[in-house]
Amino acid sequence: xxxxxxxxxxxxxxxxxxxxxxxxxxxxxxxxxxxxxxxxxxxxxxxxxxxxxxxxxxxxxxxxxxxxxxxxxxxxxxxxxxxxxxxxxxxxxxxxxxxxxxxxxxxxxxxxxxxxxxxxxxxxxxxxxxxxxxxxxxxxxxxxxxxxxx
Length: 150
Description:
This protein has 150 residues and is an alpha/beta fold. It has five helices and seven strands. It has one domain.
């Protein structure tokens, strides 16, 4: 992981991270840690990996698979991404909202979609700005999905 971040920083490139889930068969009854494989969003059995691509969608890193009950940001912390980026590498890493607090821990090196200021009754002008910012961020991040598909 350190080599990938160093490569991106030395070349002035942007990295993109995302977590991906892969469905697996449910572990046998009585198996230790059987419930760890259940992915909360879909209630399906899965394993999760974190993928890093460059801005062109070329796969640079794929983490070892872990049970999918782990959140994306937790997985990144377990891999040491926050410590690596806080260590002084000058690189921009685009991420989705699952990594929302990682930006503050890395000195702004991890860029996530803008956080909503208004929970209810947002003014129309704010909704328009928010939508434009999220679409622009999503347009830059789409390459990681192409890398995962490859």
